[in-house]
Design brief:
It is built from four helices and 25 strands. It is mainly β and about 425 residues long.
Length: about 425
């Protein structure tokens, strides 16, 4: 089991981090999930807005690439627009979401041209849209598919995150489509408080099931930092619900005045990765920092993860966030990245195709010049991080998600208008 006591480990690098922060303070804001500069369109819109239209920068493949001391073989399934989430169906097919508002199926390595539907009305703008997808733990019997999406409310720009559920028989039609959770995370409409970036950013939102069949949902703070510490909203929280959206009675804040009962943890900026470690059942999340300070966190019941009171990153004007890098009462990350890589998806590997990777963490990265790769994080037997390895950097693609499939291979999604599912196998 990985440990969460890393205060001494972090303390040893404060001085080095301060030097890096000084350099970062003079850099422009990064372009992934970070706050854009004044007057700039949200990143997802910029690709379709000013200047030349997007182009396919990936190529057809396959690719044989280095990965540490070994080699990997990478193939691509193309034809997707901003793929965001992936789920592995027992029959070997893949479900993939597209952020513009579609749910697609890949059968025998071929993308079906017909999207699945009907889906609820989705507000696809900025970094909102169709987000994650996950199968019910008992999918083989009940055929239930869960997904998160940005849901429009009254007033221009007003939106929240919802968890939808549908029944899928394997064809192109979804039935019994309904919301099991509409988060109390409305933001962006008339009268909304002004944040540090567009309200159409920082939605989260990932899904993960635990061994007891309970569902965890991440929500970002939508670029309004104070909301992450406000227990009366779901913004900036990780939630825990039953499969029908009701609240488990052992949630940490059930019955506590002023707290939403769905809250499992609070103090999150933009948690874009969520995964249950298959080895020990612990829950982990990746979270984007501001200017520096991307995090890998072990998620524990009722804990506060600090944003915007503490952060290993800096504000975009170079000032210290809140109380600084750390303070009593807030959880420190197990691993962090300075400068930021615009960290995204997360998984633990426990397959047999890459035995040397067992127990390792995989994260995606999306930021130009420091990201756009898959990163493998290694741990020693005491649970301390001991090394990192970068691969897929040659492809120069924003990696939105990375997950091992039931076949033991690794799958990554490229967050591009000409997006793809990348299948990663051992090389020869």
């Amino acid at each position: 089991m990985l440990t969460h006591s890393h205060s001494k480990f972090l303390a040893g690098v404060w001085l080095a981090a301060l030097v890096v922060f000084a350099a970062l303070a003079s850099m422009p804001a990064p372009s992934a999930q970070q706050a854009p500069g004044a007057g700039a369109p949200p990143p997802a819109q910029a690709a379709r807005g000013r200047g030349p239209g997007p182009t396919d920068t990936l190529g057809a493949g396959p690719w044989d690439l280095a990965a540490g001391r070994g080699r990997i073989h990478v193939t691509a399934i193309k034809g997707l627009d901003r793929p965001w989430g992936i789920a592995f169906v027992p029959d070997g097919s893949l479900l993939v979401t597209e952020r513009p508002g579609r749910l697609r199926v890949i059968r025998n390595g071929v993308l079906d041209p017909t999207p699945l539907g009907p889906l609820p009305e989705i507000l696809a703008g900025g970094l909102g849209g169709m987000l994650d997808v996950a199968l019910h733990p008992n999918f083989a019997a009940n055929r239930l598919v869960y997904f998160t999406y940005s849901k429009a409310g009254e007033g221009a720009g007003n939106a929240t995150t919802a968890v939808g559920r549908a029944r899928w028989d394997g064809g192109s039609t979804l039935t019994d489509v309904k919301d099991v959770l509409v988060a109390d995370a409305w933001h962006g409409g008339p009268g909304s408080p002004r944040g540090i970036g567009p309200a159409s950013g920082s939605y989260g939102s990932r899904l993960a099931w635990d061994a007891n069949g309970l569902l965890y949902v991440t929500l970002g703070e939508r670029n309004y930092p104070p909301s992450a510490q406000d227990p009366g909203t779901h913004l900036g929280k990780i939630l825990r619900i039953r499969d029908d959206g009701t609240v488990p009675p052992d949630n940490p804040f059930v019955g506590k005045a002023g707290y939403k009962p769905e809250i499992w943890t609070l103090g999150h900026r933009n948690p874009l990765g969520l995964y249950v470690n298959p080895i020990d059942g612990t829950l982990w999340s990746t979270e984007e920092g501001p200017q520096g300070g991307d995090e890998l966190n072990r998620i524990e019941k009722g804990k506060n993860y600090g944003w915007p009171e503490v952060s290993l990153g800096r504000n975009y004007d170079g000032t210290v966030v809140g109380k600084g890098f750390t303070a009593p009462g807030y959880e420190e990350p197990v691993v962090y990245w300075v400068p930021a890589i615009a960290i995204s998806g997360l998984s633990f590997y426990n397959g047999d195709k890459f035995p040397q990777w067992k127990g390792n963490v995989f994260v995606g990265a999306m930021r130009g010049n420091t990201g756009q790769h898959v990163q493998r994080v290694q741990f020693n037997p005491q649970g301390l991080p001991t090394g990192r390895e970068i691969f897929l950097g040659e492809l120069k693609q924003r990696i939105r998600e990375v997950k091992p499939g039931p076949d033991g291979f690794l799958y990554a999604l490229t967050d591009e208008t000409f997006g793809a599912v990348l299948k990663i196998e051992p090389g020869k």
